[in-house]
Structure formats: C-alpha cells, structure tokens
Specification:
Layout (H helix, E strand, L loop, with lengths): L17 H16 L10 E13 L4 E12 L4 E7 L3 E10 L2 E4 L1 E4 L3 E10 L5 E9 L18 E4 L10 E4 L20 E10 L3 E4 L2 E7 L4 E12 L6 E4 L2 E7 L2 E7 L7 H5 L2 H12 L7 E7 L6 E2 L4 E5 L6 H6 L3 H10 L7 E2 L6 H36 L25 H17 L1 H14 L4 E2 L1 H12 L4 H7 L7 E9 L2 E8 L10 E9 L2 E9 L3 E7 L6 E4 L8 E4 L4 H10 L3 H13 L3 H10 L5 H10 L8 H14 L3 H12 L7 H7 L5 H14 L1 H10 L2 H15 L3
Parallel strand pairs: 1-11, 17-18, 18-20, 21-22, 23-29
Antiparallel strand pairs: 1-2, 2-8, 3-7, 4-5, 4-8, 6-7, 9-10, 10-15, 11-14, 12-15, 13-14, 16-17, 19-20, 23-24, 24-27, 25-26, 25-28
Helix pairs in contact: 3-5, 5-6, 6-7, 7-8, 8-9, 11-12, 11-13, 12-13, 12-14, 13-14, 14-16, 15-16, 16-18, 17-18, 18-19, 18-20
Keywords: Aminopeptidase, Hydrolase, Metal-binding, Metalloprotease, Protease, Zinc
GO molecular function: alanyl aminopeptidase activity; metalloaminopeptidase activity; peptide binding; zinc ion binding
InterPro entries: Aminopeptidase_N-like_N, Aminopeptidase_N-like_N_sf, ARM-type_fold, Peptidase_M1, Peptidase_M1_aminopeptidases, Peptidase_M1_dom, Peptidase_M4/M1_CTD_sf
Length: 727
C-alpha cells in the first residue's frame, strides 16, 4: 500500500481537564504497548469463498449470500468464529450434500460465533452458507493516521447528484474486508474466491482474478462473475463498480488493463504505459513470473489510502489520473511500481501478521528503487534510495526509532510508517550490497517459491538467504529487524607521516545499540582511487592506512549503504567541490549542493554552477534556488545557463524555477521570456511565467491569467502562489 500521511491538530477548549486526560492517555497507551502482538492463531483454514452480492444505493447496504468453505487447521473442533462487522443475518446453515442444516450462533456486531453440527477433523472440509446484509456506512470507523477509514466498502455519490461519479469500491487493509463479507480477516489466511456482482447494466465492474461470465438480467441489471483460482488473503479481496472506461494492454498473453473515468480514458496508456515493462523486469529479476491471471489498475474517486495492491487488481487514488498536460509536469511512476511489486511481496507471499509488515511494504518500496535503477540508470536508483533514507531520518531522533519487525503497537495502522516503508527498503538494499546481487536475488527467489501462496516473516527470508549463501545471516537480522535505531557516525580524518587515521564515533543515543557495519572507504590520491575495507563494531574506533601522500578526498561508504547518518568533521567547501566533480554519486552531489546552498564561499558558488547542469532535475532545481546572481565572477555564466534551462530543459519543474529565478533579477530583457512562457502547455511553466510577469507588469499578469481557460487557471493559480513565495 502506498499511503499519504495527514496530520491534523485540534485546540482543546476544556483546558482544566488536560492534566487528567493526559494521565489517562498515558495509561491507555502504556497498556496498549504492553501487548505482544502475536501472529493470529489458526483454528481454521479458509479454503474457498463464494459470494453473491448486490447493492442498495439509497441505504448504502450490500445484500450478500456467502458459501464459505473451511477446514480445521490441526485440532478437531465443533465451533467456528468469523469476523463480521455491523451485519444483519437472515440465515446461517451448514451445507450437507443437498441439505441445509440451520446452525446456532452468537453475534456481538464484530465477531460471529457459530456452533457447528458436529466435530470436524483437519482432514474434513465443510461449507457454511450465510445470508446477510452488510451496512458499512453505519459502522463507526476506526481511523488511523495513514489508513484513515476502516469501513471496508464505500458508496461514492450514491444519490447521483452533481458532477461527481457514482461508484462503489472496497478497501480491505488492514482488517476491513469483514465489513462486507464474513471471513477470518487475518493476513495469514489464504482462500480462493468467486464473486458474483449484480449491478446496474450501465456500470463496469472489477474484482480479483478473471471475469468468467456476464449475464444481463430482465430488471436492467447485469451479473458479473469474477473467479480467483489461486489463494490470497481476505484483506486483498476487492470490488469496484462504476462508469469506467477500460484500456486493454497485455503482458505475455495476460490481460493488463487500466480502468479510468471516461474523461481520462484517452490518457490511460500515457499514465500506465510502463506497466508491462515493469512486469517483465520484476519477473526476470525475481525468477518468478507475474503470478496472477491478469493485472488491472483502477482509479477511483475519494480514495483515502494512496493506493492498494489488491491481488491482480490495484486501486489508485485519483491523483494518479492525469491529462496529457498534467503528465508534462508529473507522473506517479513510483506508486505504480510500488503496487506492482506487491503482487509478489504482499500478495503471492503475504506478511503473516501486521508485526511483520516489513515483508510487504519494505519490499514494495525497495521495488520502486530497483525499477528506477532499471529505467533511469544507477543515478535514478540512487536518487530514489536517497529519498527513502531522508524519509527515515526524519522519523528518528538521535538514532532512536522503532523496531522494524515490532510486536508491540497500539493498532495495526501504526505499522504503516517510514520504518516499515523507507527504513526497511534501504536495509534490504544494504543486504543486497553485502551479499552481492546474484546471491541476493537467488535468495529472494527461494523465499518466494518456498512460501508461494502462503505467508512469511523475516526469519523465513533469513533462512532463504542462508540456504543460498551458506552464511549465517542472523546477526544482520538481529541488528536491523529485531533491534531498534540506526547509527550516527561522527568521523574525523588526520594525515601524518604517510598515514591516514580515520576515527569514527558512534554517537547515537546511549540507549540505542552499537552497530556492526562492514564498509568500504575510497581514498583519492594523486588522481587515483584506492579502496579499502573496514569493520565498525565499537562505539569509538580508529583505522590507519598507509598512503603515498595526503588524499585530496576521502569517501567513507562510497556505495552509501549506511542506514543512518554520517557527519564528517571540518569538511570544507573545497572538499565538497572536489566531491561533486570527482566522486559524483547522487548522494555526494546532493550533499555538496545542500552544503553550498547554505554557504556563500566562491567554491560553493562553483558547486551550484555545476549543479545547474546536473543530470537530475531535483539537483538542478536546488542549485537554481540557491545560486547567487550577484557573484561577479560567475554572473554571466549563471545567467546564460539559467536562460538555457528556462527555454530548453526537458523537465518542466526545472524550467519553471529558472524562469522565476531570472524574473527575480528585475532585468527588463527577461519580460519577453515571461510572456512566451504563458503560451506553453506545461502548467508549471505557465505559472512561473505569470509569477515572473507580476514582477514586471502586475496588471498585464492579471490580464493574462484572466484570459486563460478555466482548467488552466485552476491548475496554475496555486502554482503561482508557490513560485511567488520563492526568494
């Protein structure tokens, strides 16, 4: 799942109660965190789930009939508990041949306890029939910070008023599928399925697996049957109903389809066109072909979870849906790659509990990184990885952060954070670096094939890696998966008498573990790079190396695999300039530009001048924003380069920032650039041109804005405010 995190702060009025409430909250939180979140007990195994559903738009009800086939997991039993939230039941019976035997049950609005007609052994399957009504809109949502609603099934504009489309869609993660059908709603359960949806004939449907039949009914409805022949977890069940246009693509004979609102249908291929290439890349890399019968991606209205990797049918929020003009400025390629990688890690093999969410989300985030490397080269891969590292570092304090595989949390939604996503992904990348690509991907293949259609946890991944490499990886997993925090390395360099001495202090909080870190060090000496290995395993260590002369630059951890911070003492602008030019990994370049952005030295100005020509547009933008236009020695070259970016750069965000920067000079010769920019197709460029023109002729800018069509005005107005706020 790809989540967007929103935080809201409210001002309490009853201040006199604050101390009492605070004390109460502390007690509740402490109690919740004291609970060890075990993997759910398997009393029964789901085998097959057959559903027949129809919808009451006026009441926001689902009318369902279910045939759920199960078997005892090991011990014989005469009772069954199913998760079922906010439902009414008309009939619950066990199917015995052609007979239907009514069963006694108890229900507390969340759990359905059924007394079976006899004891069943683990070798015996049985089928329960349930006739029920689901009323998800009447449930009190248990909202979390990242998954902000838990009602399971959603009616969008069911009354059909206004311009908003009428849709139905589901969101099962974490355990909300049981809001629309009774099940064992746990991630360590797997079941095949058949879902028959009866809908108004004008609507399109989507669900897991293959569409096997469509029957037009006499009452103006149509019944679509979707069959999922491979087992998958209940939270990955999905349905969507609405007015969607389908663009059909393919991958090795399998249907790859994109469902969009009709007005966005012409851009379906432009939005999702890399999907088959991603499927091919991931399949070859993992040695496991895309495992499902089809792959669909659907964009729905008012979706709150970013995106969701339902098996064979990913749901996206509407931010993915863009016109050709919007795609000039931005796309959601990372999200598309993330959700697709889940079809292996999360769907094919599923985290056996929410405590082990890293087996889903860390891998999907890691998949994004790998895709960018394949599609855009090492620089694109390193940029993606650097972004994940920064996400994680914002979530820690003095090296302290939660455990990756954590078994104490307040609710499952807490697991969807920068630890499970970002930190976990760069831990995987560091493992790949230490192990070597061939062994690492062979280990992933072993994990996937050994646990196919089942669930997994980090220890199973570890055992797969050990099976392949013959090495004990428990120390690595103990350090990164089962202990908290990350290192902060304070580094000093000293050269004397033909030796370089590197002193490294692990300065993370004393409560955080001491890390063992096998690293490389590159010494740049007289135009030659010399590489050495070191092993950091103490709070403070020194390493000595014989070198022919004082190195121009020392690059600790040149592969940048440290999941933490590195602070080098007394590093100068001249060091960063050398770093940018001679050790130009993405990490080294962005760190040099960040330093130069805060420093006013001549060397820093030269770094920023180099940054204007950087192959990554985000680094060009950083350089554009920070560079000094009044530095006499570089002014002419800077202005010439900025003008070239403003007119020709392939990335519209770089063009826009260059336009705004040139406008800040007040030079009248750039007014025509502003006027020409307003005629462009890119909303970024138009907004930048209007923002710039405001500095020259406010009345003309207002007039130009008013002359634009409504759609263009809607897009550029907020962008203008953003550009106008830049110095």
């Amino acid at each position: 799942m790809k989540n967007h995190f929103f935080k809201y702060t409210f001002l309490g009025l009853a201040l006199v109660l604050a101390p009492k409430i605070e004390a109460q909250n502390k007690t509740e939180k402490a109690d919740e965190l004291s609970i060890y979140r075990t993997t759910p007990l398997k009393t029964h195994d789901l085998v097959h789930t057959k559903l027949e559903v129809s919808f009451d738009y006026g009441k926001r009800y689902l009318y369902g009939k279910e045939w759920i086939t199960l078997k005892p997991h090991f011990y014989e039993t005469d009772s069954l508990k199913l998760d079922a939230k906010g439902m009414d039941f008309k009939e619950i019976a066990i199917i015995d041949g052609k007979k239907s035997i009514p069963l006694q049950y108890k229900y507390d609005n969340e759990e359905l306890s059924i007394a079976l007609n006899r004891k069943y052994k683990s070798t015996e399957k049985y089928t329960i029939f349930i006739n029920y009504t689901a009323k998800p809109a009447e449930l009190k949502s248990k909202a979390g910070e990242s998954i902000t609603n838990s009602n399971g099934l959603y009616f969008i504009n069911p009354d059909g008023k206004g311009d908003k489309p009428t849709q139905i869609w589901t969101q099962g993660e974490t355990e909300a599928s049981s809001c629309w059908f009774p099940t064992i709603d746990k991630p360590n359960q797997k079941t095949t399925s058949e879902i028959a949806m009866t809908v108004e004939a004008k609507y399109t449907t989507l669900s897991n697996g293959k569409l096997t039949s469509q029957k037009v009914n006499k009452d103006g409805t149509r019944t679509d049957i979707w069959k999922m022949e491979q087992p998958n977890a209940p939270y990955l069940f999905m349905m969507a109903v609405g007015d969607f246009k389908i663009y059909k693509d393919s991958y090795k004979g399998k249907e790859v389809s994109y469902y969009l609102e009709p007005k966005y249908a012409p851009y379906a291929k432009q939005i999702f066109y890399k999907t088959p290439d991603m499927m091919n890349f991931y399949g070859k890399m993992l040695g496991v072909e895309y495992p499902w019968a089809k792959y669909a991606q659907i964009v729905v209205k008012d979706y709150f979870g970013g995106a969701m990797e339902n098996t064979s049918a990913t749901v996206h929020g509407e931010y993915v849906q863009k016109t050709e003009r919007e795609l000039l400025d931005d796309n959601q390629e990372s999200t598309i790659a993330h959700e697709l990688f889940h079809q292996w890690f999360g769907d094919y093999v599923t985290a056996e509990s929410w405590s082990n969410l890293t087996m889903n989300e860390s891998f999907a985030t890691f998949g994004e990184v790998l895709w960018h490397g394949h599609d855009a080269g090492q620089d694109g891969e390193d940029r993606s990885r650097y972004e994940k590292l920064q996400n994680y570092l914002r979530s820690q304090k003095n090296g302290d952060s939660p455990i990756l595989a954590r078994f104490h949390y307040r609710n499952a939604d807490d697991m969807f954070d920068n630890i499970s996503y970002s930190k976990g992904s760069i831990i995987l990348y560091a493992m790949k670096n230490q192990m070597g690509d061939e062994a690492f991907f062979k280990g992933l293949n072993h994990y996937l094939t050994t646990n196919a259609y089942k669930s997994g946890e980090p220890h199973q991944l570890r055992l797969s890696m050990e099976e392949v490499t013959g090495k004990d990886w428990l120390p690595y997993f103990e350090q990164w998966y089962y202990n908290a925090g990350s290192p902060i390395l304070d580094v000093t360099y000293k050269y004397a008498n033909g030796k370089v001495i590197i002193t490294i202090n692990q300065s993370q909080d004393s409560s955080v573990q001491t890390f063992t870190l096998p690293l490389k060090v590159d010494f740049y000496v007289n135009g030659t790079k010399i590489r050495r290995d070191i092993l950091i395993n103490k709070r403070q260590q020194s390493f000595s190396f014989d070198l022919p002369s004082k190195p121009e630059f020392i690059d600790l951890d040149p592969d940048k695999i440290i999941v933490g911070e590195v602070n080098v003492d007394k590093k100068t602008a001249a060091d960063y300039l050398f770093q940018y030019k001679n050790a130009p990994s993405y990490y080294n370049r962005i760190e040099a530009i960040k330093f130069a952005s805060k420093d006013r030295s001549q060397e820093s100005q030269l770094i920023l001048l180099e940054g204007l020509k950087d192959p990554q547009e985000d680094l060009r933008v950083l350089s554009i924003k920070a560079i000094d236009l009044n530095e006499k020695q570089t002014k002419d070259q800077v202005l010439k380069t900025l003008l070239d970016i403003a007119k020709k750069d392939k990335k519209t965000i770089a063009r826009a920032n260059a336009i705004v920067k040139l406008a800040s000079t007040g030079d009248a010769s750039y007014k025509s650039l502003m006027e020409e920019s307003i005629k462009e197709q890119s909303y970024n460029v138009i907004a930048a041109g209007l923002s710039g023109l405001t500095k020259y002729a406010p009345a003309e800018a207002d007039k130009a804005l008013a002359s634009l069509d409504d759609d263009t005005q809607k897009h550029v107005t907020p962008l203008m405010k953003r550009f106008s706020s830049q110095k």
